[in-house]
Amino acid sequence: MKKRKDHYRTLGVDFDATYDEIKNAYRKVAIQYHPDKNLGDQQAEEKFKALSEAYTILSNPDQRRIYDQAERVSSGLNYSTSSRKTAEHSSADLNNIFNDILKPSKSNSKTNEYTNSHKHRQQKTSPTDNVDIKTRGKPGNDVNTEIAISFAQSISGTEENIRLKRNETCKTCEGIGTSEESIQSICPRCIGKGQVSQSPSLSKVKLDQICNRCDGKGTIIHQPCENCHGIGVVKKERTLRVKIPSMTDNGSLLRLTNQGHAGENRGNFGNLFVKVVVEKHPVLERDGYDLKCHIPIGFATAALGGKIEVPTLTGHAKLEIPSGTQPNKTFQINNLGIKKNKDEQGNLSVTVEIYVPTKLNKKQQKLLREYKKIEPKYKFNGKN
Ligand SMILES: [Zn+2]
Ligand SMILES: [Zn+2]
Questions:
Q1: N or C: where does the chain have the smaller number of CB atoms within 10 Å of the terminal CB?
Q2: Domain boundary among 100, 123, 146
Q3: How many angstroms is it from 124 CA to the middle of ligand 1?
């Protein structure tokens, strides 16, 4: 007959040990053999498994009774469970001790506020605080959004509100996913690792597989938080103030670290990417600190020369066109571009396009007909 495991011996307690004695014994040795403190130590791992199993059974009155009865039959011993000086415990107690050991990782705390709000929960925990089990929450996805700003805002920079929906850390459980009583225990199958090693038959190679008992989280939630149903995040519609720097080009992507979806069960935060769409100015275009525009002028102005009005960032400026100005001639006006600093400023380039009218009134037609009579005959090479 196969020898049964002696859970009392494993925990080093007497047969009539009280619940508290069992709990204290487990806590003392479990820390010593905890997998996070004994990385890669197979023996410690086995020992921890045995301890967890023993504790799971002996701390639960029903399971303990069944175990004792079976033990009595197999050993031929006759002892009575009624002499025990133990009080009956609810199964919630079993989970509480695990929770004492489980300390949520601080590594993915996003803000100071977050860290601080978390402290009160840690303060409630026992001296087993020094055992740190890494949380294995699912990382949050990135959030992508767009924002449209005006041409002038793209130059000066601006601050805008953007509205988005994202998963945020559940305030009720602070992202852990458990109810207020924090009922969460180390997964008995993978003992908190989130992975189990399995040796396929005829192979010495061990394969790590995601633990299917806890989905790789390493912990099991016994009473999920009612607000987030145990995933530690809730959908929120949120307005964020986003700072858009000066001289932002159309199509630029702003990255706001950790402002994407919160990870499930305190997994890392995703990032927020904001694509900046710069609305076109009716006339002006930007080229670094220089501005460019195309201005239509009549052929009479091009031929005779004259003053034309050109747009600037703040209003208008005058530009003197010389007589005989040819189509697509570009003029540069210094210091009408964008200010680089106190002393430097870009330039404004104005390219003139000769506009041929499609509709002429009677007077214009009459005058042009007069002109046409004396218009020079241009040669094919454009010279006369
Ligand atoms: Zn919650
Ligand atoms: Zn597991």
A1: N
A2: 123
A3: 18
